[in-house]
Recover the amino acids of this structure.
């Protein structure tokens, strides 16, 4: 049993080396056989370059959905196939977009073959963005649809995102376990996403108001500085011009003065009694 295990391990190692060997010991591997859609476009002494002909650009239109409950019931190794064909929606989203989306047959999708996979990729290539550009503030997508659909973007959902479709504000839906989609109508659509850090504007306004109040306070203090005796109060102290004596010293001196005066009074009374 141990010998068989060692042979299996050696066989597995040999398979890995067959793919990752050096140029001198390179073994030919039929990449398109294992990765559908990849075509060899160039090679050199060290590498072979392949292009994915089934690449799907950013921004895909979807007209089918699967509920979150059904999606989680599928085995994990079949879920990627389902995501290629349908969006994962909550019950509320299903009701909201029931006029443009239909439920998919997850059983058929889970049995997807390589040929089916290639067909689905080509289908999405015909139903994706014609152009896609982005900057540090968001991204813009242009897409033409034959019918109203949800346009999916593999960008993580966040509260800081806002979206417009053809200049009108659009609801951003959190779909497929954390990504974004918006509704677009048939015809040409320009979809604009913009991101702003949540709470940033409010924080700037609060900070500005606090600085303004601080400036007003400092102006008031500066105006009344040196007029403490006239108005009987002070907002700030200039320690360089204050007397060396403190309130504590004044209190102690007053206590001793009262005590001395009381002692003198008692002494006067005693002298009067003796006489």
């Amino acid at each position: 049993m141990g010998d068989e295990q060692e042979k299996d391990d050696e066989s597995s190692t040999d398979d890995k080396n067959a793919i990752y060997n050096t140029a001198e010991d390179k073994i030919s591997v039929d990449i398109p056989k294992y990765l559908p859609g990849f075509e060899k476009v160039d090679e050199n002494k060290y590498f072979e370059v392949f292009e994915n002909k089934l690449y799907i650009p950013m921004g895909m239109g979807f007209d089918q959905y699967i509920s979150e409950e059904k999606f989680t019931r599928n085995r994990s190794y079949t879920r990627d196939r389902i995501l290629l064909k349908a969006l994962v929606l909550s019950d509320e989203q299903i009701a909201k977009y029931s006029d443009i989306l239909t439920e998919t047959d997850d059983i058929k999708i889970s049995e997807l073959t390589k040929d089916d996979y290639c067909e689905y990729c080509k289908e999405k290539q015909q139903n994706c963005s014609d152009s896609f550009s982005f900057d540090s503030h968001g991204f813009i997508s242009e897409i033409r649809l034959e019918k109203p659909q949800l346009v999916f973007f593999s960008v993580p959902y966040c509260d800081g995102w806002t979206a417009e479709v053809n200049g009108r504000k659009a609801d951003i839906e959190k779909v497929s376990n954390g990504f974004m989609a918006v509704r677009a109508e048939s015809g040409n659509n320009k979809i604009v996403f913009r991101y702003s850090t949540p709470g940033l504007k409010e924080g700037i306004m609060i900070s500005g108001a606090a600085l303004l109040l601080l400036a007003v306070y400092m102006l008031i203090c500066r105006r009344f500085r040196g007029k403490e005796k006239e108005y009987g109060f002070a907002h700030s102290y200039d320690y360089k011009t204050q007397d060396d004596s403190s309130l504590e010293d004044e209190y102690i001196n007053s206590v001793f003065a009262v005590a001395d005066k009381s002692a003198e009074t008692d002494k006067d009374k005693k002298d009067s009694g003796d006489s």
